Protein 1
Amino acid sequence: MDVDMNDERDRIAPMFKDRHVLITGGTGFLGKALIEKLLRCCPEIGQIYLLVRAKKGKSPRQRLEDIFANPLFETVKGLRGLDTLISQCTVIGGDVTEPELAISPEDRRLIIENISIIYHCAATIRFDETLKKAVMLNTRGTKYMIDLAKQCKKLDMFGYVSTSYCHLNEKLLLEKPYPPPADPHKVIKAVEWLEEGVVDGMTKKILGDCPNTYAYTKALAEALVVESMDEIPAVIFRPSIVIPTWREPIPGWTDNINGPVGLLIGAGKGVIRSMYCNSDGYGDYLPVDFAVSAMCVCTWNYVGNKDHKRNIYHLVSSAEIKVSWEGIIERGKWIVSNKIPLNGVLWYPGGSMKRTRWEHNLAAFFFHWIPAFVIDCLLYCFGYKPILWRIHQRIAKGFEVFEYYANNQWDFDNATILYLRTIINEEEKVKFKIDAGGVEIQEYFENCIRAARWYILKETDDTIPTARRHMRVMWWVDKICKTLIYGGLIYYITKAFYSMLFASV
């Protein structure tokens, strides 16, 4: 490997020049960010092929237009024009859960003859997905993609997007392969043969110590990729919890409420008042623009520098930035209460994390379930559809998954990324940022809440004054109610005390 450290020109984008790339999962959160990054920062890239499930009534151009309609692409559309972007992308109808990927013979030949780089991002990220569906998509789908990659005549790299949270028995995860929880080939055959109901009945026993089907099936898929490394140039990306953008191309952009964003919105709306969580613990978060930049740098190192010894990459942040669970919630509550209020707040943001389950269950009963029941009754009486009880059912179900991760701790070695920081030049460090320099946590969370307000909740800036007035009203309501409740408790406790005292005299 020969890396010229004196070359201050960008060497990463030119490596992609005229190379054709296939991306699965391009309609997902990470997939869209990767497409945008390649089109904006690597304009001379060859054709980008997107494997997407067929959608009746929509042509390939319409599917592309749906992707490019996302606000994420406004910057690159302004720079290059929508028609140019569409001409550089090709939709391939297919489905990773189907045999042969449900790709037509013509499209398969197109891929085999042209593709140089594959990014396999498609996966179900639902932790409560049924085991059969998770195996079919996350594990068997990866096997099918590997089979396709083996046929590609110009393949320089097959990049599998895994997760740093798939080997949960390892408290310190190293950038190396780990044995799978079972033989992936046997699991695939068993799941193919058995009915879904039968698999559901066996799921708990099959998973063993693994807490959910997501981690289990991603670990199995990793084993398939490792197994194939003798036949194809394959790498594994292990990103941690991928969260909204830090800065590029829109600060705080996201298209979902997974992870911390959901907690911020729930707490900011006054709906989430209690969580069973080690408040001092922390998760490992990675802004999605950091994730896709790292994927580009790793690809350049593997393909351009031919550094094939480094083929497992941890895309993580907690070695540099540790934000506790309590820190996230407290920051979110302060921002929503003082700077960027949300519309339709049900109660003034408050509550706390509980270190024991019984404390949380007690608090949830009084501050989640009773208010939900009362408010839904009022909604029903006024002719509206009750919704809050159902929302808290979904929150409680989400907490079942969250609690496992919030009350355990993992750390990750990222020596390869640290090495890559030493071989990229100043221009590349700016264009493909893979370090935490300049990241301000408070500013970042403000951008996340502002962007969630715009893109998720569809709340425009002109509603902020009204939201701020409503927040002040809810502050008074919160204080008055607490005063009445605590005053009532003190009154009845005092009354009971004096009754007992006089009764004993």
Protein 2
Amino acid sequence: MALRCVLAVLAIAGITLADPETVTKLKVEVVSTPEGCTEKSKNGDMLTMHYTGTLDDGHKFDSSLESLLA
């Protein structure tokens, strides 16, 4: 749940930089979740995750994974 909230915040932050006339809708997608994880995040926990931001046309505008591959 906390991961979804963080992803939503990141997506909203990115969308505020876009031209308001070209923005039609926001889509947040969870690609994978860890199996067998029973520990839940709590208020104040530090979370780390990877993301890739793409536009509707498939153009990638940001990714945390590129720094890992470089």
